[in-house]
Amino acid sequence: MVQVDLGKDSVVFAVTVIGSNSIEFQIENLRIGFSKNSNGPTSGILVECGYKDGIVPDYFTMRCPQWTIGHFLSTIIDPQSITKTLVLCQIDVF
Asked: What domains are there in the chain, each with its CATH number?
């Protein structure tokens, strides 16, 4: 899991994830969500921005539901995924 503190409650329209172009670090089964606390995704996700089943492209934008509000962004890979390490080069929040 990677968690990003947005600094305050923010309205989010989309999240762009830029990953590694190495096949060794491909991201698979990615979930993006927002919460109001930093306790992690299992205890506080209020809004799920979305879920990408399968291999995530190196440059991927996920549009969030209208009026998505959160303070902490969490990116999580499915524990059953073949991906064992979440390697992100950049996360842009719009």
From this structure: 2-93 (2.60.120.260)
